[in-house]
Amino acid sequence: MRWLLVAVLSVVTMASCGAGLAPQAQAQGRVEAASDGLYLDGEKWWPAGFNAYQLSTNWGINRGCGGMVDLPEYFDSLPPHSLTRFNAFQELAINKFTGELDFTAMDAVFAEAERTDQMIIPVLSAQDGACESEKFKDRSWYVGGWKTDDENGTRLSFEDWVQTAVNRWKDSPSVAAWELVGEPDPGECVNGNCDWWVRTCPTDAAQVLRDFMEEAGAEIKTIAPKHLVTAGLIGGGQCGTGGDDYLFVTESDNVDFVQYHDYGADGIPLPGDQWNGLARRIDQAEAAGKPLLVAEIGENAGSCKTLSARASSIGQKITGQRAAGTAGALLWAFVPDPRPNDCTMDIGYDDPLFPLMAGFNTYG
User: Average of pLDDT values for 28-56?
Assistant: First the structure.
């Protein structure tokens, strides 16, 4: 789920609190978020793992999003107490032949995670509509469209999908957290053009995003009070989360931990500037009393760099980030069909990043 990092600062200072539903009391689940990091089954946990966005792809059932993964092989390849982030989009629960809901492919992901006692973060939608409508989610969507947009009755609204998905897997012991939208950005398109260099950022963007997190997060917690909610923020100065707005959104009562997505700074532990860099985001998460997961770290290899050189670079990066106070790291991205002769971020089973991440993954 990689989108371009766009440094669009929201300059308005927000003084009011989110106008969403009241914060939900957190029942104790397997995963807990505290000011000093994440805990799993009561033990300190520093998860290291992968984005494996393709897990729900099943070409015999749904339209897919990438290649098909051998689910038992993938989950068996992971060390104990690992963490995987994957696409749990509505479109991947639609049977492409009947147009009806069909949970077969997604149920299989949860079943394999549970069989191997692995932890997962299901991402319920992507900001740019990838592998679904391909439509950018603008300010109007975050204000209310998420409750009503149903593609002319052919799909559930996002609110209905959240309720459907969370209800279905609310008792899963493998859910570390739910993620509402990957890389949210309540910008406004111009004359139908949603390219990042054309979009504008409304002055109330931070408030709009926080209100969404409050209300949609409350819906998750009402259904699954033992599960956490993570905000899938890029952290690089995007609309609604630039500068101090990142802290404002982080302080949402129904967000348990936040994210940073790290691209284009190979080997550098703390990329970015004093306003929107990772060091600033770590400080802001600490001020809010919430962990920060570096949920996407991407670096090219293959024809442009050896796999071992990439592993060394990423190892240096994660070592520095962990020392600076991050709560975990996930790489972009595992794929079942890596392309060794191309310059990509593909990670396959034989990649030295697998043992590297196993070494970083810490429990107890």
Answer: 98
pLDDT tens for each residue of 15-30? 344 444 555 555 789 9
Pairing of strands 301-302, 343-344: antiparallel
In angstroms, the CA 314 to CA 293 distance is: 15
Match 């609204």 to its residue by tokens: 157
| Domains, in order of start, for the chain | 31-363 (3.20.20.80)
Q: What is the pLDDT of residues 218-252, one digit of tens each?
A: 999 999 999 999 999 999 999 999 999 999 999 99
Task: Indicate the helix (H) or strand (E) that contains 120.
Answer: strand 119-123
Q: What's this model's pTM, rounded to 2 decimal places?
A: 0.93
Q: Which of 179, 184, 181, 248 is nearest to 220 (CA)?
A: 179
Tokens of 316: 């240096």
DSSP H helices, the chain, are 71-76, 104-115, 139-140, 146-148, 158-169, 205-223, 245-250, 278-288, 307-324, 353-360
